[in-house]
Amino acid sequence: MSTSSLSDTRSAELYRRALHVLPGGVNSPVRAMRAIGRDPIFVERASGAELTDVDGNVYVDYVCSWGPLIHGHAHPAIVEAVIGAAALGTSYGAPTAGEVELAEAITARMPSVDMLRMTSSGTEASMSAIRLARAATGHDKLLKFAGAYHGHVDGLLAQAGSGLATQGIPSSPGVPASAAADTVVVPWNDPEAVRRAFAEHELAAVLVEPYPANMGLIPPAPGFLELLRDLCTGYDSLLIFDEVITGFRVAPGGAQELTGVLPDLTVMGKILGGGLPAAAFGGSAALMERIAPAGDVYQAGTLSGNPLAVAAGRATLALLDEQAYMTLSDTTRALADGLREAAGDRPVSVTSTTGLVTVFFAAEAPTDYAGAVACDSEAYGTWCRALLARGVYPPASQFEAWFPSLAHSSEHITRTVEAAAAAFAEAAS
Ligand code: PLP
């Protein structure tokens, strides 16, 4: 595959070796950068908003590990917290004070979460929340939205966004038909399709990214989340917000705080682990006390509540005060406005909310997954390669969000917008 004009001798050599021992040379598909027509970039280190690859190229990073790094890379307070925790032991398989304090910090922020269970990944948290919803309602079926991604849980890979959308995979071989049969998929922002699904199926839950960011960022139409809430209440189904991306990002209490729509269960991850593997699901005490050992719904994990991840999560949340959200909101607006300006009158649209931005190669911003798929992904890829050559590291897929962080300064944004304008000009020529 082609590469841009970057120097990439070491990356190319590592990729060659990686292809022998890792499928596709990577440990998660989008990292391979195939969707933008180039080979992967191997990272050496990162600090603040900047990433340095193994060939010494420096980039302004808008992936930030796909969301956990709201303070940028290697924030000194978070690094210090992790080192301090590691010195006391890396894992005990027993409760700690830190996990109680992290759970208290999370429940203080998330309006609908009184109690939670930690896991090591968002995938596990989604899977466990679904189990709980099924146990609580006695129903099996789930409603999800085309283009939404909730982790690589068997039953949730139908028409999923993120890496599946990037690789053009509608679902995955290896998922039993029986697992997929319980998943009902409807288009995002389509009230009639949702009403029909409720009329036709007994649903345990509606699982929704309240601000979907895995088909690119496509905000909910006015009233859509409220409709989901009303239908779930009316039909005795649970509303599950997947706030793995939006939690602690779009507002301290995530999309549920931003919109005022309260789910029954919330799936969280990314920021709450501060860049280490941690996630959680939570809700009312009445629901969460169904989880073992308080209740009969089994759920467990060797590394759940890992002390290093808990330390990183606590340090991350402690730095997120009111000012931080004002700053992140300003940074996001400057980035989104700057990218819009750089695009000029080209058929490009930019969506954004605090901490999230997507550049769609379509004149009108899409309102659902079909709209996202109709965007000019090839032009997005060409533009991304041109950005990388100019020291800006965007998500290597039209179906992902950019993650501006608190480490992105106005100088980073200016540099990015200049690179974006030059890359648009190059992509068009
Ligand atoms: N839910 C959403 C909204 C996500 O974006 C992701 C991952 O990107 C997940 C769940 C799965 O989380 P993990 O990759 O930690 O398993």
TrEMBL record:
GO terms for cellular component: cytoplasm. Pathway: Porphyrin-containing compound metabolism; protoporphyrin-IX biosynthesis; 5-aminolevulinate from L-glutamyl-tRNA(Glu): step 2/2. Gene3D superfamilies: Aspartate Aminotransferase, domain 1 (3.90.1150.10), Type I PLP-dependent aspartate aminotransferase-like (Major domain) (3.40.640.10). Keywords: Cytoplasm, Isomerase, Porphyrin biosynthesis, Pyridoxal phosphate. The modification N6-(pyridoxal phosphate)lysine is found at K270. One of its GO terms (molecular function) is glutamate-1-semialdehyde 2,1-aminomutase activity. Its cofactor is pyridoxal 5'-phosphate. InterPro entries: 4pyrrol_synth_GluAld_NH2Trfase, Aminotrans_3, Aminotrans_3_PPA_site, PyrdxlP-dep_Trfase, PyrdxlP-dep_Trfase_major, PyrdxlP-dep_Trfase_small. Transmembrane segments: none annotated. The keyword Cytoplasm applies. Belongs to the class-III pyridoxal-phosphate-dependent aminotransferase family. HemL subfamily. PANTHER family: GLUTAMATE-1-SEMIALDEHYDE 2,1-AMINOMUTASE (PTHR43713), GLUTAMATE-1-SEMIALDEHYDE 2,1-AMINOMUTASE 1, CHLOROPLASTIC-RELATED (PTHR43713:SF3). Homodimer. This is Glutamate-1-semialdehyde 2,1-aminomutase.
